Amino acid sequence: MNSALRVIRIVCVMVFVSGIAGLIISSIAGNNVGVVTTIGLITSLAAIVLLTASTVANRQRIDAFNDALAEQVEGQIGALVASGAKEDTLRRLVRDAINLGRSAS
Fold it and tell me: Which domain holds residue 74?
């Protein structure tokens, strides 16, 4: 895990714990609406920061369509069809190979 993300998570947890304690203390001390609202907003801001940082730090790549590879596969299918193979059978084979590759990863 990224060390910067780890620091952000630790700080956010500290803000969460402090926010809960602050809400309890301010509620006992006199239930000042301004203080409770401020603490709540700061705690919710920490939650937004945590969600944003975790989303940005996600290292999984999004599947992208590779046009050059698709053209190459189409060319190979065309060559096999020209040599006498059934196109429907080839397309089904390619579809099954794609599904097998996706299930393996």
Answer: 67-104
